[in-house]
Design goal:
With 219 residues, this protein is an alpha/beta fold. Helix 6 packs across helix 8. The model has no long low-confidence stretch (mean pLDDT 89).
């Protein structure tokens, strides 16, 4: 399972960070790492990861705060918190901000591998979304009709996923821009309109334009 799987480790204890890197690389994972949440957030803008391993007590802000920002931006990457916190309130807060799992330190590395693989297996099952007569592979960013791949840009697929996961709520133009472009990139309103037009070709009855505000997926 670990071939070409990319993990991001956020841990401010340099020695433990290196221990995790060495162990997980030996298991065949592709590893990126950060020692602080700001650097980790930059890495999430630059590349797509299959899973996050986040410490909680960090410089500048907590892992909880970082994950909440990522979830609010539409990032659904599976996340495991690794923490020395033992109180139940921290456990509750971790899951409330969108964690998928939570391990208390000291970490048993063999158990960590089991939990990572379990999350990745679940993610693979959830990657396929059926929308009427279409099949959406959210990982590969491809839309299929029967077995034929539709010609549609990846950013349009990312917009489709954002609309789908918003559960009928209006997605503002600002949020779409933040989701489709990195912080240092210029948002293109014209491109958003082009992507919406592409999506309406396949889902003409599902996408509603809220004039001057954004769009929503009609459930």
């Amino acid at each position: 399972m670990s071939n070409n799987i990319k993990l991001l480790i956020l841990e401010d204890d340099k020695l433990f960070n290196e221990t995790l890197q060495d162990f997980l690389e030996e298991e065949g994972f592709d590893i990126a790492f950060a020692l602080d949440p700001y650097s980790a957030q930059e890495l999430t803008y630059e590349q797509k990861f299959d899973l996050y391993l986040f410490d909680v007590n960090l410089p500048y802000e907590t892992g909880f705060s970082l994950l909440k920002k990522l979830r609010d931006s539409g990032d659904t990457t599976p996340t495991i918190f690794l923490t020395s916190r033992e109180d139940k309130l921290s456990l509750i807060e971790g899951f409330n901000v969108g964690a998928d799992d939570y391990m208390r330190k000291p970490i048993d590395l063999d158990e960590l591998i089991l939990r990572i693989n379990a999350l990745l297996r679940r993610q693979i099952r959830e990657d396929i979304v059926h929308i009427g007569k279409y099949r959406l592979d959210s990982r590969a960013k491809r839309l299929y009709y029967q077995d034929k791949s539709m010609i549609i840009k990846k950013k349009a697929i990312e917009l489709l996923l954002l609309l789908l996961y918003s559960n009928g709520e209006v997605v503002t133009i600002e949020k779409i821009g933040e989701h489709l472009w990195h912080v240092n990139q210029e948002i293109s309103l014209g491109s958003i309109r082009v992507y919406i037009t592409m999506l309406k070709k396949y889902f003409p009855d599902n996408i509603e334009n809220i004039r001057g505000v954004g769009y929503r997926w009609k459930i």
